[in-house]
C-alpha cells in the first residue's frame, strides 16, 4: 500500500516557516545550499517545483512520489510566485475548506474529509504520496501519516508555522534513517510505530 509521507524542512524548534507563513526557502534559517539541492535532486527530484526542475534539467517521473497533497496556504505560496500548479509532473491535490476553485484544471480541490481522501489514494496503485504542508493540514492528516522525512536545519527561530499545528495528539514514530549533509542539515526519517 502507498504511504503518506510528510517530507518537509524544519527548524530545530519545529517550525516549517516564519511567522508570516511565506515561502521559507532561501531564508537564512532555510538556506538552499548546494548540498541540500544535491540531496533533493538525488533522492526526491519530484519535490522540486516545475521551474526549478527545468532550470536544473530534471525530467521524468517521480522517484518516490507520484502525488502531492498540500493545504491552501502552501498552495497560495506557489500562486503568489505565478504558478497555478507548481507540480504539474505530479497528481496534485489542494485541501481547503475556503477555496471554491483553483485556477488549474489539473488540480483536485479537496473541500472536506482530507483523511478519507488520503485513505482512498493510499488504496490506489502508484508511488507514495507527498504531504508538502502546511502544519494545520499535517495535524489533520496525522492519523494517516506513515513516514516523516524531516530536513532539520540548524536554526532556532522561536515562532512561526509549526510542523504540526493542532491540539495535543501524542503519536509515536521510530527513527529509521539519518543523513548528515555537509552544511549542517540533518535529514531524519521516521516511520509510524
Q: What is the topology?
A:
Blueprint: E1 4-11, E2 15-17, H1 34-43, H2 50-56, E3 65-71, H3 72-80, E4 91-95, E5 107-110, H4 114-123, E6 128-133, H5 135-140, E7 145-153, E8 161-162, E9 173-180, E10 186-192
Parallel strand pairs: 1-6, 1-7, 3-4, 3-6, 4-5
Antiparallel strand pairs: 2-8, 7-10, 9-10
Description:
The protein is an alpha/beta fold and 193 residues long. The chain has one domain: Dihydrofolate Reductase, subunit A (3-Layer(aba) Sandwich). The protein contains 5 helices and 10 strands. The strands form 2 sheets. It has an 8-stranded mixed sheet. It has a two-stranded antiparallel sheet with strand order 2-8. It is globular. The protein starts with a strand and ends with a strand.
Rounded mean pLDDT is 96
List segments where confidence is low: pLDDT < 50 over at least 5 consecutive residues. Answer: none
> Structural class from helices and strands?
alpha/beta
Overall tally of structural domains: 1
CATH H-level superfamily title: Dihydrofolate Reductase, subunit A
Tell me the radius of gyration. 16 Å
Per CATH, what is the topology?
Dihydrofolate Reductase, subunit A
Going across the major beta sheet, what is the strand order?
Answer: 5-4-3-6-1-7-10-9
- Residue fraction in strands: 25-35%
Helix content: 10-25%
**Helix segment tally:** 5
Please trace the helix and strand order, writing H or E for each element.
EEHHEHEEHEHEEEE
The total strand number stands at 10
